[in-house]
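Researcher: Please predict.
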Amino acid sequence: MLKKIPLFLLLNFSASVTLFAQIPGGYYNAASGLQCQALKDALNIIVTNNHTALSYSTIDNVQMPIVDVIPNDANNASIIWDIYSNNNFGPEPFEFNSGQVSPGGFCGGTTPSIEGICWNKEHTFPRSWFKLSGSSYQQPTESDLFLVRATDAKLNGRRANIPYSTVSSPTFTFSAPGGVILDKIGPSSASGISTSSSFEPNNAVKGDIARGYFYIITRYQGNLANWYSLNQATTDVDLVVDGITGGGIYPSLQLPYLTLLYNWHLLDPVDAKEINRNDLIYSQQNNRNPFIDHPEYAAAVFQCTGVIPVTLLDFTAQKNNESVFLKWVATLETSFKKYNVERSTDGTNFNTIGEVTGQNLANYSFNDHELPKASVIYYRLKMIDLDG
């Protein structure tokens, strides 16, 4: 299996600018230098402290019009960011507004007969998975904006409470103009995840959903064992959540599902829309998603599970006269073969310039002696398992 680190090195011989999310100073100090369960525990405390509980009955007309609004394709109006129908690859199938009446606005519990009529509140981590008793749900989970997303009401109803997964033989598909398939429903095709009905969202939001789940099982790790025991018999929560090992505290996800989500996390890296939503949620409920602010936390937290074949802790470059010395620090290599060193002058088109065999070392290095004629050079590591 091919693994790519979700970052690359930019070596700029003239000047460089690095953009960061608006993370409050010192917010993650308590997580510094930690890994695996210790890091997850520290992040739990960070995102739980000062978390402001919101009202589920009013987030659709107060908070969601703030955090879930994006420009339309023409950049001349604001629309609701529906993660199921928003098309990153071309024209939108339809556009929703933040109003509280249909057509086009919020429609509450209504499920229209077709897509494109109105939007409502979707729990990406279904409410039935954290149900307590009767009609009671865990709080503040029910109104946590990292769980609740705006989605087309009909697609929300189609997804219902089934888990996310990959689908190779869909029984239902939803497409944007031009035939681009955005969503699928059908039997899970992911290794180790067996369910007759699952929902595969479009590639452009798979990372968003994965990092949302990493937040959920971190923020609510102390509740997972209870959710698992209460709802295992009636829902698919047991396909996703490991509520038994370590009392649900770590790793908190079934390993096949962790593999799926981690791959989605790499497939769809953090982008500007996700960063902006994270900042806006912080302005409303006073906590953040660590896996958006620091995507590398996903590898650092879950590297002790064996799901990740190798974890990169550091990657640096130093120009020495007419060569560049690359150095990286790795840990916990499992069934691992080699690193391919790749180089680019535009940050898009990369070529392999060398290989370094994995030897379970802490420190690796590579010298690039044949520099191209460019003022900016990008370097990337591709990590390859024994199975290729």
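Model: Confidence is low (pLDDT under 50) at residues 1-20.
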